[in-house]
Design goal:
single chain; mainly beta; five-stranded antiparallel sheet; 51% strand; extended
Length: 111
């Protein structure tokens, strides 16, 4: 809404926008959650995989350099994985979760 010169208010205007992207970030994954953000010592990953798959999990710094060796994660259904972040300096990082075909990068902050 906006306020006009005569001190009146406009009619509320709402718009619904639906966006479809034709590329799945991680095929077969219904949901992916990384928490807490910001993190202190342990970052938790939770995903819901429709089929059994193996993912590679790695952490990159703000410059895109891999700072921890990639680890394999086999998941099926609702799965959790903890990543130790106690040794990281405070700053911005990205966790990369990739399958054979696709990858997703999720930024997080280390306090």
């Amino acid at each position: 809404r906006f306020h006009d010169e005569a001190e009146g208010w406009s009619v509320p205007i709402t718009t619904t926008v639906t966006v479809y992207v034709g590329i799945e970030e991680l095929p077969g994954v219904n949901s992916l959650l990384v928490f807490p953000n910001p993190v202190q010592d342990q970052l938790t990953l939770r995903l819901d995989a429709q089929t059994a798959s193996t993912y590679e999990v790695s952490i990159m710094d703000a410059a895109g350099r891999m700072i921890a060796a990639p680890a394999n994660w086999s998941a099926h259904g609702l799965a959790h994985r903890n990543c130790d972040t106690a040794g990281l300096a405070a700053g911005l990082y990205t966790i990369r979760i990739s399958s054979a075909d696709q990858a997703v990068n999720i930024p997080f902050i280390k306090q």
